[in-house]
Write a structure and sequence with these properties.
Distance between the termini: 59 Å
Radius of gyration: 20 Å
Helix content: 25-40%
Shape: globular
Number of strands: 17
Strand content: 15-25%
Number of domains: 2
Strand order of the largest sheet: 5-4-1-3-2-13
Largest sheet: 6 strands, mixed
Order of helices and strands: EHHEEHHEHHEHEHEHEEEHEEEEHHEEEH
Structural class: alpha/beta
Oligomer: single chain
């Protein structure tokens, strides 16, 4: 039996309230202080994973009790140590590899410092997140009749590891790229790595109005993309957790298609014993990378740091396919998107362009 663990954290104060009803009557800052001093803990066991090759895996979900904004507001060394303590919990449970989920993948040079400290391999899952994200974006673009090679691609959070690699892979396939980041110095450094002549670099989110396709993957703790920013007929891939795209977009823009970051179908009769808001046997791609590495017995720190290569994306995608993991279709704000839903959006986009 192969084994793994995956680190998660509350996506917002409402997650804490959902688990501990008493906190509804307590100030968020007070709850955050309590969480800060709470040790990482196992919240569930993941059972029933079996690849098409017959390899079985057992896993554990481990909570790093911090709210999203605490990962950036607290001292980084302290946060890294807390994440490392969670990997110790994983090792004691018997995990042979641990995945760093959501904001646990960011501190300490995108997991590099945690990887040095941990006694078992760690991975951010970002390689498979990129692979499935690009696959989902291309599928959605095709369904919305967007010609990739004639399109303008916007990437929000372009200076991060996922954003940068998406730019490097997709740059040659689109007509123009608008790469958006918060920090001008980081954008200047990015320009040395993404050298496509069609790339433009900016800190201005309003440039999204030019984009046919958008990938957004920031570490913002609140939504940063609102309905007024988007072009009619745009496809937006939101990889970030918490989400970058406001739910107002789904309510106010019937001419824009927002899709969740790659959702993966896991083989077997899987029970996470935890509600992610996803259908049975489905997980986020970052966790699916960890599962794939366990099934493949590839116990190594596969995706760590800011530099992710196309070769890594291709390798993990092939490994996942070999074991029967695959993109689970398109979802938007945790709801399945039907063909009729897409036709409805495409029809309204066509109407609004007139």
């Amino acid at each position: 039996m192969e084994t793994f663990a995956f680190l998660i954290h509350p996506q917002g104060f409402e997650d804490v309230v959902g688990k501990y009803k008493i906190t509804k009557h307590i100030n968020e800052q007070v709850v955050a202080m309590v969480l800060k001093h709470h040790r990482p803990f196992v919240i569930s066991e993941i059972t029933g994973i079996e690849s098409v090759l017959g390899v079985k895996a057992l896993g554990w979900l481990i909570v790093v009790p911090l709210l999203p904004w605490q990962f950036s507001s607290l001292e980084e060394d302290w946060v890294v140590e807390k994440i490392w303590k969670a990997t110790e919990v994983a090792a004691k449970e018997g995990a042979k590899i641990v995945g760093l989920g959501a904001f646990t993948a960011i501190p300490g040079r995108n997991g590099a410092d945690v990887a040095k400290m941990a006694r078992i391999p760690v991975t951010t899952g970002n390689s498979y997140t990129i692979g499935t994200g690009i696959e989902a974006l291309k599928l959605a673009a095709e369904k919305m009749s967007i010609d990739l090679k004639m399109s303008v691609l916007g990437i929000v959070g372009a200076t991060g590891s996922i954003g940068k690699t998406c730019a490097q892979i997709l740059g040659p396939q689109v007509e123009k790229m608008i790469l958006i980041g918060r920090n001008q110095d980081n954008l200047t450094a990015l320009a040395l790595q993404v050298t496509d002549q069609n790339a433009r670099f900016t800190t201005d989110l309003n440039r999204l109005a030019e984009c046919d396709l958008i990938i957004t993957v920031t570490s913002a703790s609140d939504a940063i993309i609102n309905p007024k920013m988007l072009k009619t007929g745009a496809v937006v891939l939101d990889i970030a957790r918490p989400r970058d795209v406001s739910e107002l977009v789904s309510r106010e823009r019937d001419d824009v298609l927002v899709i969740d970051g790659g959702i993966v179908e896991i083989p077997g009769n899987v029970d996470f014993h935890f509600n992610f808001g996803l259908p049975p046997n489905q997980s986020w791609a970052c966790m699916a990378e960890t599962i794939t590495l366990a099934l493949e017995k590839k116990y190594q720190s596969f995706t760590i740091g800011k530099d992710i290569t196309k070769a890594q994306v291709d390798e993990i995608s092939e490994d996942a396919k070999k074991h029967g993991l695959k993109l689970a279709g398109l979802r938007s704000f945790e709801k399945k998107i039907s063909e009729n839903d897409i036709k409805y959006i495409a029809r309204h986009a066509h109407r609004n362009r007139k």
